[in-house]
Design goal:
By secondary structure, the protein is an all-beta fold. Helices cover 0% and strands 54% of the residues. It has no helices and 11 strands. The strands form 2 sheets. Strands 2, 4, 5, 6, 9, 10 and 11 form a 7-stranded mixed beta sheet that branches. It has a 4-stranded antiparallel beta sheet with strand order 1-3-8-7, with no helix packed on it. It is globular and about 40 Å long.
Length: 115
């Protein structure tokens, strides 16, 4: 189970933090990540972490930071210098591999609006 928190409304250039509490995952080595879906667009990867390796989408690199707590039970996304193009529903996801097609466990999503 994945449960997100955080999100909300922020002005361009502002910051927001998202959290995802993970429990009951089938494998402790699952890929965990943040994904987003803007209105009228498909779901895309934002940032993922798998066996210590971190991947960022080019559009967020240098602005967003993904991290986990020491027990790997909580996933975080620190978002800085937000742009209107970052407006989307953000989802925490987990899967055997980090490719979007392998992400099969999803949180309920949280809305981020930059305006």
């Amino acid at each position: 189970q994945l449960v997100e928190s955080g999100g909300g409304l922020v002005q361009p250039g502002g910051s927001l933090s998202l959290s995802c509490a993970a429990s009951g995952l089938p494998d402790t080595n699952y890929c965990l990540g943040w994904f987003r879906q803007a209105p009228g667009k498909g779901r895309e990867s934002v940032a993922r972490v798998h066996t210590g390796t971190i991947f960022y989408a080019a559009s967020v690199k240098g602005r967003f930071t993904i991290s986990q707590d020491a027990t790997n039970d909580t996933l975080y996304l620190e978002m800085n210098n937000l742009d209107v193009s970052d407006t989307a529903d953000y989802y925490c996801g987990a899967g055997r591999y980090c490719s979007l097609s392998y992400i099969n466990i999803w949180g309920q999503g949280t809305q981020v609006t930059v305006s």
